[in-house]
Automatic annotation (TrEMBL):
GO biological process: system development
Official protein name in the record: Zinc finger protein ZPR1
A GO molecular-function annotation: zinc ion binding
InterPro entries tied to this protein: Znf_ZPR1, ZPR1, ZPR1_A/B_dom, ZPR1_jr_dom, ZPR1_Znf1/2
GO cellular component, one term: nucleus
């Protein structure tokens, strides 16, 4: 093929590439809003629904919808998650103490439930549409819902109306922060979020936990288990597919781009890290938006004990240490009061410097720069300046990697295994019940499981 022909083909491929559907939310997305004529549920005249597919930084892809009727003035807005259902459900507990906690941003999907134990308020799953709101907005929406038809209810059912008025008054007391309260947000799809107002530091008033969905919860999401058929899976002969062939083979499977959701392919290869264990390396390159990702998953099982690495970073040699971070490993820097959970950064094979750069990129997002809160922006800019000083080795700090599954590895700089590395501390510890629950080990049965089957 000639150079001109190849150039034409490349140009035609470039023109055929679709634009990213979900771009990070910003003020210049007005041209991406789609307007649809739809019926008003209040006066049944035609109104306008505006739809915007976008991506919330540090969160996921969502579709924001807003409706307004020019005839009766009725308006409504809601949010629907456009990302995939997560592997685990999420449970978030917020302890609201001050008026600032009422302004925390909340992203909740259709599959989330909300409860406030202090006033026995509970909003069940799929009883409300998803929305982007605040803690105060949730309380205000509840008051508006209970106040609907109250005038008529006071005439027909005065006793019930008086009880509802008393409950509304208790909700108003929460808005006035007359006393602290807890807001519990549970989402079986894993697509809900409450803002950390002291980010990037750990928020002592915010607790997040992940849980495994039950069969009923999976069915509520439309996820059904396939019936097991002994004829579908046939055993492989002992020498038919040796492990050597698998290690030398690059496997491919179809997936969607995590950035623009366009179809693409992921390459996967099994390899072995010296002095450690086998790992699975996966890499994805999107032909539509050019987004690249790489991820490393452990090829072995869960270790008997968890592992904790403490790395002192004071020189360029410390930044060049090889690191295998598994998807269950959390990171922290005590000197900066910074903690990064295991789900914030995927598993990867990199260096200490690579981990620090990834952590900084996560923090240096448009979510804080576009915020109207000048105090939040100023605090984040100061923190990033301190982080840059650490990267330039102007400050000494300690990076802590903690993996309850024991599948994380940090390279030792000592030439002899018998010599100790002064800047690397390795600790093995017994997992707690919560650690085992997070890894799904408490419900795992390894003996006499044939009887249950």
């Amino acid at each position: 093929m000639s150079t001109v022909g190849a150039a034409k083909n490349a140009a035609s491929v470039s023109e055929a590439r679709p634009e990213a559907i979900f771009r990070e939310i910003n003020a210049d997305q007005s041209d991406e809003v789609v307007e649809i004529e739809s019926a008003c549920m209040s006066c049944f005249q035609n109104g306008i629904t505006r739809v915007l597919p976008t991506k919330i930084p540090f969160f996921r892809e969502v579709v924001i919808m807003s409706f307004k009727c020019e005839h009766c003035g009725y308006s409504n807005n809601e949010m629907q998650s456009a990302s995939e259902i997560q592997k685990s459900g999420i449970r978030i507990e917020l302890e609201a103490k001050t008026a600032a906690d009422l302004n925390r941003r909340v992203v909740r999907s259709d599959n989330s439930s909300i409860s406030i134990p202090e006033i026995e308020l509970e909003i069940p799953v799929q009883s409300q549409k998803g929305e982007v709101t605040t803690v105060e907005g949730i309380i205000e929406r509840t008051i508006a819902g209970l106040s609907q038809d109250q005038e008529k209810r006071r005439i027909d059912h005065p006793t019930e109306a008086a009880s509802i008025d008393g409950f509304i008054e208790r909700l108003r007391q929460l808005k006035e922060m007359q006393k602290p309260f807890r807001l519990l947000l549970e989402d079986i799809s894993g697509n809900s979020f409450i803002e950390n107002i002291v980010a990037p530091a750990t928020d002592p008033q915010l607790k997040t936990a992940f849980f495994t969905r039950s069969k009923q919860q999976n069915e509520l999401l439309g996820l059904y288990e396939q019936n097991h058929d002994d004829h579908l899976l046939q055993p492989i002969a002992e020498d038919e597919w040796p492990i050597e062939n698998l290690q030398g083979e690059v496997l491919q499977f179809a997936t969607n781009c995590p950035s623009c959701q366009a179809p693409c392919e992921t390459n996967m290869k099994l390899t072995e890290i010296p002095h450690f264990k086998e790992v699975v390396i996966m890499a994805t390159v999107c032909g539509s938006c050019g987004h690249k990702t790489n991820e490393v998953k452990s090829g072995g099982g869960v270790e008997k004990q968890g592992v904790r690495f403490k790395v002192s970073i004071a020189s360029k040699d410390d930044l060049s240490r090889d690191v295998l971070k598994s998807e269950t490993c959390s990171l922290s820097i005590p000197e900066l009061d910074l903690e990064v959970g295991p789900h914030a950064l995927c598993g990867r094979f990199t260096t200490i410097e690579g981990l620090l750069v990834a952590m900084r990129d996560q923090l240096d997002g448009t979510f804080f720069h576009d915020s109207a809160d000048e105090k939040t922006k100023s605090k984040m800019d100061t923190f990033l300046e301190t982080f840059d000083a650490v990267m330039k080795l102007e400050k000494v700090l300690t990076l802590v990697l903690e993996d309850p599954a024991g599948n994380t590895y940090v390279q030792s700089l000592s030439d002899d295994d018998t010599e100790a590395d002064d800047k690397l501390i390795v600790e093995r510890y017994d997992r707690s019940f919560d650690d085992n629950e997070e890894l799904g080990l408490n419900d795992m049965k390894t003996e006499n499981y044939e009887q249950d089957a």
